Amino acid sequence: MGLRGLAGGALNLAIATPLVSGVLLVIQAALLANVLGLTIEDGVPLLSVAPLIGWIAALILLRALLAVLGEQAGQAGAEAIKQSLREKLFGHLLAGRHGLHLAPASGAVSAGVVDQVEAIEPFFARYIPAMISAAFLPVAFVVVLMPIDWIVGVLFLLTAPAIPLFMALAGMGAQAATDRQASAFARLSGHFADRLRGLTTLKLLGRQKTATEEVYLASEDLRRRTNAVLRIAFLSSAILEFFAALGVAGVALYVGLTFLGLLPFHPELTLVAGLFALIMAPEVYQPLRQLAAHYHDRAAARSALVEIERHIAKIDALALASPAAAPVTRHGPAALSVRALDVVSETGASILNHLSLDLRPGEAVAIMGPSGCGKTTLARAIARIIPASGSITLDGRPLEEIAETHLRNTLVFITQKPRIFHGTIAENIAFAAPDAAESAIHAAAERALVNSFADELPNGLNTLVGEGGAGLSGGQAQRVALARLFLTDPSLVILDEPTAHLDGDTEARLLDAIFEFCSDRSLIILTHSRPTAHRADRILRLAAGELLPIPHRLHAVGENRGDNRT
Amino acid sequence: MKALFFFAPLFRARLRGFSLALLLSLITIAAGTALLGVSGWFLTATALTALGVSFNLFAPSAAVRGFSFIRILSRYFEKLIGHNTTLALLSDVRRFLFERLFPRVPLPARSLRHGDLVSRLTADVDALDTLFLLAIGPLIAALVIGAIVAAVLFAVLPVAGWIYLAALLAAAIAIPLALVIQTDRTGTALVEAAAILRTHVLDATLGHDDIVLFGQQDVVRARFTAAGNTLSRLRKRQSLATAIASGAVQTLTGFVLIAILYFGLVALETGTLDGPILAAIVFGVMGSFEATATIVRSVGKFSAAAASAARLHEIATMPPPIREAQRPVPLPKGTDIAFKSVSFAYPDGTKVLQHLDLDIASGEHVAITGISGSGKSTLLNLLLRIEDVREGAIEIAGTDIRDVALEELYTRVALLSQDSPVFLDTIRNNLLLARTDASDADLWTALRTARLEPFVRGLPSGLDTLVGETGTTLSVGQARRLCLARTVLAPAGIVVLDEPTSGLDAETEAAFLADIPGTFRGRTLLLVTHAQIPENARMRMLVLTNGQLMEPKQ
Q: Which residues pair with B548 in a beta bridge?
């Protein structure tokens, strides 16, 4: 899986300890067989076997310590791998450009980064050590048993190798079933997240019974798929148990019959040797059993990786993003030039069609147009968060040549549905500039009229706002996002519907603050609101993928709806 | 821990499956113990038997084979039945929680993170499975098998019986209990750390544009890394405690074996015990430890399960924001609404509405404007009992809405709220949520009203187009219009719209508003908006200021 290298030396320790422990086990079994055999058959006094008993105790203690050490090493190795994978996936999420395509379902993504990554833990912490033990220990045990009694050795040689073969056959079916189960799990997560988000709406639509039933059915679907996996997984362990039982029972019978003189192969077999063979019999199969117990982990880890790759990215292609460069200082308002810009939706429809736009340094332009006409798409293309063909230059430099850090310092774009992160209102404002002083945050909040509602909250700006901005109304969330603007120092500002959800008076005050801030910056405002558009130097209309100018005066008089319709 | 009892009734419903699994696990371990005991006895006895003397070979060899096969079969079915019962229980728990969740809607948004909630329902419910399958079942099995082995030992070698009993109690109860106490806090912290990690991922997915636009990837990544490291550290701590406890049980059982061996050998020397019986005891005891070995493994997960149960218990028992009528009266026909001296304040004491009066006749259309935060949305929420009035009353058709069954109220009043979501489903299914029996023609009419018809007609799959989780393939305005179409489709006599035209351009907005008289003919409409209402919409206009409704200034 290529991830093993991330674990460092811890995994090697986790692999080595069971092997060492296996060697010690042979000695322990030999000592136990001697104690029992010598005292019972040969009548050796207890006192003379006492040192042997002492050695058994020491070995038991040592093996317990080795087990603790190995287990912890396996866990540490797995944790290193998981954390490193999580960081890579998260880095990929941040670096990724969803473009115009359907953004991945956030429920499925978080299930991938959090839960599916956890699912690979047993593979590294337990399956790999178990696999290596299973490859070496049974063979080693048989080698030890061979000189003691070759028949017993042959018995093990015949039964043990058959086990992995049958298990592999059963495991093939298990993999397919596990894949189906993992995708059912991802669907269940996505379904949950989505329905939980709309819980209130579902309730008001009187859908609580059907929604509950749907959740139950999705869960039952997961149960059926899981059962299919388990039936095969348990079948393979039953096959293993069958061969192990065959081996143990075979040894017991063989040794017993030899003692009774009914079998001619090894008449001088002692009780010590017989007991040793019997004690070792289950141990020969134990590593294989251990492997079978963790066999499912391999299938689960593989399915988890498939799910991660489906929803996030190819694991091999993941690379940690390079750290950002130092901030760049600003040089006055920016000039923007857009030429022959084309954006095509994933269905092939043209959203922007050979669009051109020029913005002089310090100019404020309002762009209007029916909803869905591509205003936001244009802004996203200028902000370089979606790919577009054509040319966009900022202060004469092609957009694609500008370093990311420089671009983000030069251009600030407040989106239409800004994200309010989990944290306080102040933290959300400071998101734009994490080093901002408290006084600066307060000033920004004041300018964006955040104070007008925050002051009435018990904790003011320190009020916790929920993930997704729950707890704030649409207009309030918009103002928190606008406050972010006042903590930055850009050359070009793009605002998408900054005054939606606001009443006329609040809108006017907010526009005062925005235009004051942008007096020496270039500004693009996307809006449906006429009062907002009229503050701009120029108004453009976006229709059929093209920008058309609207003469300011004409627009103001001719399209004033209030006058028009009387 | 107490929270676990909350789920006891659900466990009881699946008692038969769990009992069967437990019985099978007892048979499995008993067969294993007997298999090793008989083998040890058989070997030793045959070694001590003089050559040629007749020895009953048949019985022990049949027993060895029989125990082997019983063990294999019972183990297979034990696992299958145990897992199936557990998964069925988990489905029950999920359904139970959803049933519990709905009356508690809307959930307190400021304290319950959405990511947290998702994590609670999926991961926490899954964590409960360890409870029976890995914790309770093996514990009972170990105690029962241990009691049987101890009884046998008391009969043949009393001192070994005492030692065994003490070790059993230590391995099955004392050490696991110490581990539970030790890992209790870690378990709670673990579940929380995973929830925080999940919130970071949701923030990064849903807030991706904002993070990129502000160039804050490094800050966000650092937060995520810190959260991930916390999770790793907690897991390692948990695993170490479990490994040590497991090593302790391993050592303990090993020493018990030695002790029994020692006292057995003493008894052998004094002639009170036969050699073959001693071998049987030693091997049998070795076999019986299979039962105790798994307990400690599962205990580490037990504390996580307890923490999950506590969190699930918390949401399932939150006080509902409103109280359902004890003996609901039927809501008479009629769609007239009366707000009678209604007052409302936020929990923090901020007064929003003060002795507000409003009478709306059946079929009347009313538009309410007012500055942001004046309480317009609250007014609408009160009508749907998303929150309840503090003072006064709201009546529909002359009946106090608090006396009516919520379900009936919802069928009579349809709401478009500011944050109505588009569900991850087809456009058709999103609309059908409002009215399951609507025909395609009805759907198109609703889409036409919401000014979304041409867009949907233009989609290759039309009504069957899948729309994204937060309506991602739709623009904000289109998503809004889809929600509007859904509300219009609802067969309710009263329609309540909170800013139906936000995200619409001026022309579309004006056209929608002008069509209101026709669209909502015969239905009572209460509309909150910042938009200019065209005069031909023939609506009563009111302004909400200082908690009261006024006629607009001319």
A: B545
